[in-house]
Design brief:
With about 350 residues, this protein is an alpha/beta fold. It has two domains: about 1-170, 3-Layer(aba) Sandwich (Rossmann fold), CATH 3.40.50; about 175-355, Dehydroquinate synthase-like - alpha domain (Dehydroquinate synthase-like, alpha domain). The protein is about 45% helix and about 20% strand. Helix 6 (about 175-190) packs antiparallel against helix 7 and helix 11 packs antiparallel against helix 12. Its cofactor is Zn(2+); NAD(+); Co(2+).
């Protein structure tokens, strides 16, 4: 079992990376979690993972209740939160209780927000089952729900007691979900580690063949990159914002498309747009843009969106949590892959030109 530490002083926690659930008991005991446990999952993950995961907890001597929420981003809302709160109230939990998120980013965000707010905060464990969650959303403590069409607008920063990554869960994913998860993996390489970017590009075939050694290395590298950023900037005061590469335009597309595209698919489009914006601003060359687009094409992610509504996407960006005043903030590559900076841009024509380029 591989272990990566996230060093946040009293909120520090380990990330465990394994190929099954067999070590969960050790992790529970190491974290000194002794109260009642509630595993929250969704209707998709419940079919493939819940029984095996619950069994590992029971074998470790834990009392576990299960609550299943409807799958899908459209259910990441306050109505689902209300259902969870009612269930938790019925169990008469105290503050020693632990909520376990078994699923992708939606389950992790909802469960974490429930843990952060129920009884003013109870224990929380992340068991991410998608590549998107294993590489990004399960690490760093961002939790929350969507509200009135704005993504993650209601939420908190709340760190888990530990994260347990079982890379074998990826075998149960639809291939589209696996592709979408790779968008965040590629993102980490582009923002901080060109060598890792090249590793992912070189090993695309092995990833889709579920090579466990490659999947474990990717999980370890992703978590190390994300942890290194979160350790320096837990609550997104500065450096952590680089993790939003591709997300400013990507989130807007996701909302305008009414979540018909997966998050990673929108991030892919957002990364292509960010690369082109940097090209138009003469921060990078055409070769770098072509490299990134080529990698995303090889993975099978979208790099263009026919019929994109430029004005709607542009206007939606002003509902972004990261907006400063009335100006949009973008994370853009500088000079080469592996290095990015934040830029505040108020050139409407430039931004719309970049959005429009996705439809060409």
């Amino acid at each position: 079992m591989i272990k990566v530490n996230v060093d946040l002083q009293e909120r520090s926690y380990p990330i465990y990376i394994n190929t099954d659930y067999s070590q969960i008991g050790k992790c529970i005991h190491s974290a000194k979690l002794t109260g009642k446990m509630v595993l929250i999952t969704d209707t998709n993950v419940d079919k493939y993972q819940a029984d095996e995961c619950v069994k590992a907890f029971v074998e470790a001597g834990c009392e576990v209740n299960k609550f299943v929420i409807p799958a899908g981003e459209e259910n990441k809302n306050l109505d689902t939160m209300r259902d969870i709160y009612k269930f938790l109230l019925g169990l008469k939990l105290d503050r020693s209780a632990t909520l376990i998120a078994l699923g992708g980013g939606v389950v992790g965000d909802i469960t974490g927000f429930a843990a952060a707010t129920f009884l003013r905060g109870i224990n929380f464990v992340q068991i991410p089952t998608t590549l998107l969650a294993q590489s990004d959303s399960s690490v760093g403590g961002k939790v929350g729900v969507d509200f009135e069409g704005s993504k993650n607008i209601v939420g908190a920063f709340y760190q888990p007691k530990f994260v347990y990554i079982n890379v074998s869960t990826l075998k149960t994913l639809p291939e589209r979900e696996l592709r979408a998860g790779l968008a965040e993996v590629v993102k980490h390489g582009i923002i901080l580690d060109e060598e890792f970017y090249e590793y992912v590009d070189y090993n695309v075939l092995k990833i889709f063949n579920y090579d466990e050694a490659v999947l474990q290395y990717i999980a370890k590298k992703n978590c190390s990159i994300k942890a290194s950023v979160v350790e320096k900037d837990e609550k997104e005061g500065g450096l952590r914002a680089i993790l939003n590469f591709g997300h400013t335009i990507g989130h807007a597309i996701e909302t305008v498309m009414d979540f018909k595209l997966l998050h990673g698919e929108c991030v892919s489009l957002g990364m292509v747009a960010a690369m082109r914006m940097a090209l138009y601003l003469e921060m990078i060359d055409q070769h770098s843009v072509d490299r990134v687009k080529g990698t995303l094409d090889k993975i099978g992610l979208p790099t263009k969106l026919e019929g994109i509504d430029v004005d709607s996407v542009y206007n939606q960006m002003f509902y972004d949590k990261k907006i400063k005043g009335s100006k949009l903030t973008f994370v853009l590559p500088r000079k080469k892959i592996g290095e990015v900076i934040q830029c505040t841009i108020d050139d409407e024509d430039l931004i719309k030109r970049v959005i429009a380029s996705l439809g060409e």
